[in-house]
Amino acid sequence: MGTWESLHKEHSEIFTRVNLLEKALIDLLQKRTAGGTERPPDIQRDFLEAFEHGITLHFTVEEEALFPALRKKGKNAETLVDELLLQHRSIMEKYSNIAQASHTDEEKREILLELAQELAEHGRKEEISVPPIVTQMSLEQLREIDQAAKRLGYSV
User: What residues contact residue 125 under an 8 Å CB cut-off, 6+ apart?
Assistant: First the structure.
């Protein structure tokens, strides 16, 4: 399995986690506004731990192994990479923002919901836009991406 296939598989896993988190957060926010007093689920903490461990390497591999190769495929690919990089920055800023102690639990949940939604939108964009470009790459270009990903500690 190559780097793109591994990243694609991770996108599917991220979609599943984001959907579960989003449903749990929406349910929790609805209970809060309706006066419910249930203890917040640990899904928020679990998501953040999985996010920190998985998405950091995932984004690094995309940014340092995949995106440079994509950029070489023309102006449209360059524009796509620029858009994806902006999304990466925005997602990571939201993640960092959640960790700030100055936020209330309610504010953190709102930021987390925004993060989950943005991450899902980003994943959909990659899943729609990147495969047509990857299919235009030669086997040698794909091998170079795999080698770069391995140097970053990504198992291909």
Answer: 83, 84, 87
Among 6, 14, 140, 12, which Cα is nearest to 62's?
Answer: 6
What torsion do the CA atoms of 8, 14, 87, 58 make, to the nearest 10 degrees? -60
Please give the structure tokens belonging to residue 49: 């731990």
Tens of pLDDT, residue by residue over 85-124, are 999 999 998 888 877 768 787 887 888 888 888 988 998 9
Domains and CATH numbers, the chain: 3-151 (1.20.120.520)
Q: What is the pLDDT of residues 35-85, one digit of tens each?
A: 554 545 566 666 677 777 778 888 999 999 999 999 999 999 999 999 999
Measured CA to CA in angstroms, residue 113 lies from 22, 32, 52 at distances of 6, 15, 16
Q: Are 82 and 63 in contact (CB under 8 A)?
A: no
d(CA 114, CA 91): 9
Residue 1 has what DSSP assignment? -
